[in-house]
UniProtKB/TrEMBL annotation:
Domain of life: Eukaryota
Entry protein name: Glycosyltransferase
Alphabetized SUPFAM superfamilies for the sequence: UDP-Glycosyltransferase/glycogen phosphorylase (SSF53756)
Family to which this protein belongs: Belongs to the UDP-glycosyltransferase family.
Matches recorded under Gene3D superfamilies: Glycogen Phosphorylase B (3.40.50.2000)
C-alpha cells in the first residue's frame, strides 16, 4: 500500500507512463516540472522500469514517489522484458501491449487506495494505456492523455485515420491531408503501419482503434511542445477531441531535466568533443528503437568520412570497442549522454531519426537537424523540421530510401556537408537558435508552457473541490 502523504497545500497527480523510453522520459520531466511548482506526483510503473527511472529522477525529492506493479506474464513476451526497448522484434509489440493491459487490476487497486489517503486531482496516462480512462471514470477522476508526438504529426495522423485520403494509392503517390491549417501533401510511404493501411483485420490497427477511442474521450491531452512552435497545429489537433477537452502545451519537457553536468564526469565522448573545434562535429544517433541494416551502416560510415565533417556516431547492437576513434570521428557503441552532447559547443549538427524527444532536445540547444525518419511518425517529424520550422534539412527526398532501398554514402555525404557548411545549414542554424530562445522563454515563469501547466493544475483542483 502506498504511504500516506504528509499534509500539504500542494496538489497530487498520478502519472502512468507507457513502458518505452521515448514515452517515459518526458513524463518523468513532467514530474520534475510539477515538483518545481510545489505539487506531488505518484508514478506507477513496473520493477525493471523503476530502476531506470531512478537514474533520471531526483531520488531525494519527497514530492515524487514510485509505486511498482509486477509486470504480467504474456506467453509471447520474453521473461524480464518490461520495456519495448528490450523487445527482440517489433512483431512482439502487440503482445507486449496486451501484457500491459493485464496491469489493470493492480492499477485499479492502487488508485482506490490513493483516493482514500491522498486523492489525486487527475491521472496522466500514456495514449497506449487507453483502459485507464475507464479506471479514472469509475472513481470520478479526470484522465489526461499524453502523446509522445508533436502537434503537427498528431494532426496528420488523426486526419488520415478519420478521412482515409490514402486509400487505394501507391506508396509514392502524393495526396493532400484534409482539414489542415495549411496545405500538407504527403505519400503513404511517410505514414507508419497501421496508420497507412487502416486494415480492420490487422491486430495492430484493432488496438489502435481501441486506444484511439479512449484518447479522444479523455478530459484533455498533454502535448510535449510549446504553443509558439506549432500554434495552428495545436488548434487543429485539439479539434479531434471531445467538446470541452483541451490540448495543453507544457513543453519542451526536456528543459525540466537535471543539469547535463551530471553526465560529464569522465565520459570519453565528452572528453573527445572537448578536443574538437566549435561547431565542427555532427552528432549521429538513431535512437533506441530503430534497427539499421549492415548495408546501410556501411553507407553511413562512407558518407560521414567523405563529408569532411567531424562526427560522433552512436551505434547500437554492434560488437567492438565501446569507443573507437577514427580519422575524422568517434564511434560509440554504448549509451551516451545525449543532452550533454547536444549542449556541447563542438556540436554543429544532429543527424537524427527525428523521434520527437530528440527533435526537441536538439532545438532547445540551438542545434540544426539532418532528419532521417525511419519508423512511427518520424518521417512526419523530419518534414516539420524542414518545411514548417525551418530548423533542418532531410536526408530522404523524392523517394530516396523508400521500399527498403539503401541511401548511398554519396547522398549522405552531400547532406552532411550542406548541414554543416552550406547555406541551408546556416539558415537552419540561425532558426534553431531562435527556437531555442523561444523554448526557454516558454517554460520560464510567465511563459506559455509554464502558465499552461499552472492553469491546468488549478483548473483540475477547482473541479475536485
Amino acid at each position: 500500500m502506498p504511504e500516506e502523504a504528509p499534509l500539504t497545500s500542494s496538489h497530487h497527480i498520478v502519472v502512468f507512463p507507457f513502458m518505452a523510453q521515448g514515452h517515459t522520459i518526458p513524463l518523468l520531466y513532467l514530474c520534475n516540472a510539477l515538483s518545481s511548482m510545489g505539487h506531488r506526483s505518484t508514478i506507477i510503473t513496473t520493477p525493471l522500469n523503476a530502476i531506470s527511472m531512478r537514474r533520471t529522477l531526483d531520488c531525494q525529492n519527497p514530492k515524487i514517489r514510485l509505486i511498482e506493479l509486477p509486470f504480467p506474464e504474456e506467453p509471447a513476451v520474453p521473461r524480464n522484458c518490461e520495456n519495448t526497448d528490450q523487445l527482440p522484434s517489433v512483431d512482439l509489440f502487440v503482445p507486449f501491449l496486451k501484457a500491459t493491459q493485464k496491469l489493470r487490476p493492480q492499477f485499479d487497486q492502487i488508485l482506490e487506495e490513493l483516493t482514500v489517503i491522498d486523492p489525486p486531482i487527475c491521472i496522466v496516462s500514456d495514449f497506449f494505456h487507453g483502459w485507464t480512462l475507464d479506471s479514472a471514470k469509475r472513481l470520478g477522476i479526470p484522465r489526461l492523455v499524453f502523446h509522445g508526438m508533436g502537434a503537427y504529426s498528431m494532426s496528420i495522423c488523426k486526419s488520415v485515420c478519420v478521412h482515409y485520403p490514402q486509400k487505394g494509392l501507391t506508396e509514392t503517390e502524393p495526396f493532400r491531408v484534409p482539414g489542415m491549417p495549411s496545405p500538407v501533401v504527403i505519400t503513404r510511404a511517410e505514414l507508419s503501419s497501421p496508420v497507412k493501411d487502416l486494415d480492420p483485420n490487422d491486430p495492430s490497427f484493432q488496438l489502435l482503434c481501441e486506444v484511439g477511442l479512449a484518447d479522444i474521450e479523455s478530459d484533455g491531452v498533454l502535448v510535449n511542445t510549446f504553443y509558439e512552435l506549432e500554434p495552428a497545429w495545436v488548434d487543429c489537433f485539439e479539434g479531434f477531441y471531445k467538446k470541452g477537452s483541451r490540448a495543453w502545451c507544457v513543453g519542451p519537457l526536456c528543459l525540466y531535466s537535471r543539469s547535463p553536468q551530471d553526465a560529464l564526469d569522465s565520459n570519453p565522448c565528452i572528453d573527445w568533443l572537448g578536443r574538437q573545434e566549435v561547431g565542427s562535429v555532427v552528432y549521429v544517433s538513431f535512437g533506441t528503437q530503430v534497427a539499421v541494416s549492415r548495408g546501410q551502416m556501411r553507407e553511413i560510415a562512407l558518407g560521414l568520412e567523405r563529408s569532411g565533417a567531424k562526427y560522433l556516431w552512436v551505434v547500437r547492437g554492434e560488437e567492438g570497442e565501446e569507443f573507437e576513434e577514427r580519422e575524422n570521428g568517434l564511434i560509440a557503441r554504448v549509451w551516451v549522454p545525449q543532452v550533454a552532447v547536444l549542449c556541447h559547443v563542438a556540436i554543429g549538427g544532429f543527424m537524427s531519426h527525428c523521434g520527437w524527444n530528440s527533435v526537441l532536445e536538439s532545438l532547445v540547444h540551438g542545434v540544426p537537424i539532418l532528419g532521417w525518419g525511419m519508423i512511427a511518425e518520424q518521417q512526419l517529424n523530419a518534414k516539420v523540421v524542414e518545411e514548417v520550422l525551418g530548423v533542418g534539412i532531410r536526408v530522404l527526398e523524392e523517394g530516396e530510401g523508400e521500399g527498403g532501398n539503401l541511401v548511398e554514402g554519396e547522398v549522405i555525404s552531400g547532406k552532411v556537408a550542406e548541414l554543416m557548411r552550406g547555406e541551408r545549414g546556416r539558415k537552419a542554424r540561425r532558426r534553431a537558435a531562435e527556437v531555442a530562445e523561444a523554448a526557454r522563454e516558454a517554460v520560464a515563469p510567465g511563459g506559455s508552457s509554464y502558465t499552461a501547466l499552472a492553469n491546468l493544475v488549478e483548473d483540475l483542483a477547482g473541479k475536485r473541490r
